Amino acid sequence: MTDSTILELERRNALPDDLRFLAEKYPRNDWQAHSNIHGMANMWLQRHDMFRELGGILTAAIADYREERTTAPEFAQFFAPRLNFFLGNLDGHHNVEDHHYFPVFARAEPRLKRGFDILDLDHHTIHEGLEANAETANAFLKALHGDNDAQRRAADLYADANTRLVAMLDRHLADEEDLIIPLILEKGDRALGVG
Q1: How many CB atoms within 10 Å of residue 134?
Q2: pTM (two decimals)
Q3: Neighbours of 27 (CB within 10 A)
Q4: Which of 59, 69, 108, 171 could covalently link to 64 via disulfide, CB atoms 3.0 to 4.6 Å apart?
Q5: Between the CA of residue 165 and those of 59, 101, 127, 148, what are the distances in Å?
Q6: 10 Å Cβ neighbour count for 98?
Q7: Residue 175: CB partners within 8 Å, gap ≥ 6?
Q8: Which helix or strand (DSSP H or E) is residue 103 part of?
Q9: What number does CATH give the domain 28-192?
Q10: R_g (Cα) of the chain, nearest Å
């Protein structure tokens, strides 16, 4: 396996060791006790927690439908607005990161530039996953008006797309936090120009 293959979002288990020097200095378990956790770092973690929670809610909703714990109309009413919120906010969050925060952070700590390049590539992969998720979700919602077999096939396709997206997102969010939160703890919001 080449280095670029190992760094692909759906194949990697963590960021390479050479990008983890600040994460080693500031372990995740110590973040909340650090004086620079307030402000941008906390906002970042809260935003990521929201994406994780929404991914879990959507996963649970499709499971409830597939296990017949909810009817098609109940599912559609619950699911559609939450999916739209999730996909729209995730796409917007990534755009702000790519065009504003990642360049600022890479200038502040040039040794992490490759890490921000990896995260930027992740966003392209995740965007493809968002499109597949939206496409299969729309097909599924349309299939709710069809026969049971069509509904089942569409539900399975959506569940697969959702599982893939949530797995990619979980890996990406953890890696992004391991780069950004220690950097904010090290430098502080003001020194980074984000406070």
Answers
A1: 18
A2: 0.91
A3: 10
A4: 69
A5: 10, 23, 9, 25
A6: 15
A7: 12, 14, 15, 115, 118, 119, 122
A8: helix 102-108
A9: 1.20.120.520
A10: 19
Looking at residue 19, the DSSP 8-state letter turns out to be G
Tokens of 89: 């906010």
Q: To 5 degrees, how large is the angle CA 38–CA 43–CA 48?
A: 135
Amino acid occupying residue 89: N
> Which residue in this structure is represented by tokens 């040039």?
110
Residue 11 DSSP label: T
Note down pLDDT in tens along the chain; length 195 residues: 455 555 799 999 999 999 999 999 999 999 999 999 999 999 999 999 999 999 999 999 989 988 999 988 888 889 889 989 998 899 899 989 999 999 999 999 999 999 999 999 999 999 999 899 889 999 988 998 888 899 889 989 989 999 999 999 999 999 999 999 999 999 999 988 886
178 touches 44 (CB < 8 A): no
Nearest CA to 61 among 176, 165, 162, 178?
162
